[in-house]
Amino acid sequence: MNLFLSINKKTVVILIFLFLGFLKINAQEEKNDFWKHVRYGGGLGLNFGDGFFSATVAPSAIYQFDDNFAAGLGLNATFNNQKNVYKSTILGGSLVGLYNIIRELQISAEFEQLNVNRRFNVNTNIEDDNYWIPALYLGAGFRNGNVTFGIRYDVLYDDERSIYADPWAPFVRFFF
């Protein structure tokens, strides 16, 4: 009986090594196309006026699953300054899903979570603010190559806390 168990253990060990060796050989033959399906894009914003300055950097990346569907991540960093009134820093991230109904028509859903830090001038008698605000955008746009332009709506819009003046927002999206 001991001889039989010894032979079975040896056989099992040999089979495991053969299986693992086959997996390694097979894995080397298959090419990893993951990075060929990743597309990069994002947005840059610059706004200034009489005593006002705003700058935004919002990089993003998506994985193109097929010709119709893509999903990805984005980051957002914004700095605002209204002279003698307030300064704000807004940092956050987002998850985005894109679906092309037809090649030229794209619908999107994006969940964004932002941390808003506002520091008011002492002369305004307004308390400083630091809070998180979520947004869920549903949008539609016209796509031409790497560019999509359209409109989106924030279904979680809060007119007292949102950093935007309106739940409707036009967008231009680039992915290369």
Automatic annotation (TrEMBL):
Protein name in UniProt: Alpha-ketoglutarate decarboxylase
Organism from which the protein derives: Algibacter marinivivus
